[in-house]
Design brief:
By secondary structure, the chain is α/β, with parallel strands linked by helices. It has a single domain (3-265), classed as Alpha-Beta Barrel (TIM Barrel). It is built from ten helices and eight strands. It has an eight-stranded parallel beta barrel with strand order 1-2-3-4-5-6-7-8, surrounded by five helices. Helix 4 (110-122) packs across helix 6 (143-155). The longest helix has 19 residues, at 246-264. The protein is globular and about 45 Å long. The model has no long low-confidence stretch (mean pLDDT 96). The structure holds 1,3-dihydroxyacetonephosphate. The site of 1,3-dihydroxyacetonephosphate has 14 residues, from strand 8.
Length: 270
Amino acid sequence: MITAMRPVIVAANWKMHTTPADAGELARTIARRTADADVVRIVCPPFVALAAVRDALADAAPPIAVGAQNVHHELHGAFTGEVSAPMLAGLATWVIVGHSERRRDAGETDMLVGRKIGRAVEAGLRPILCVGEQHNERDAGLAEAVVDAQVRGALGTHDAAVLEAGGLVVAYEPVWAIGTGHTARGADASDMADGIRRTVADLGWADGGAGLPILYGGSVTSANIAEFLAEPAIDGALVGGASLQPDEMAGIVARAAMTARARLDPIATG
Ligand code: 13P
């Protein structure tokens, strides 16, 4: 498989942590501790801290992007407490869509997730689509079928070329691995990534989906990231709990940078 053209990405999902008062400082510390131009870094704070993080990272070199954790599927209207894609203009350039915690707690369906992706791409936000199976589904041998259905359900109504141009990224996050300290095996995550690329190829993506970046998420730490980045099919990580700890982020991004350089110049880096 050709991986050279895909970037290596580390995205921090801060979930419901930090406040506008402390998020900027944490973002600045992480930016400084992970400064590496070969890795695409994204910090996704809560909505209310987006402006603080944007301001804190405005002068970061190399640049580090800001992402939202969710977006509404309508542009505006009577949707109390919601945030639409156009509202994120100037605050974020990425957005996480379809996280399993939102599927679980907010009842988000694949169809709704698909509409969110459409809004994100229209607004110029790069979506990170989260998919992943439950433990009982993996035990039953259904992991690939479940994720295939999630990807089809979210992306099937969209034009593949528009999603590709919009910079879609998929995060494979097995639900049983999130916040549990249990991780998938690297080889299993790689198999799932291969399956996701087969699905998008079937949906019309160019080159068998070879251009689609796929991240692994679920209890990623500096101690286990190497197992995932050793897999050519995996292009980085969506990090939850460990992303609030600058030491952890420093270790994760340092390992990601090794992979990025190996992909850029496989001969020099062996
Ligand atoms: P943890 O890294 O805390 O398991 O969370 C993963 C996740 O849900 C990232 O979106």
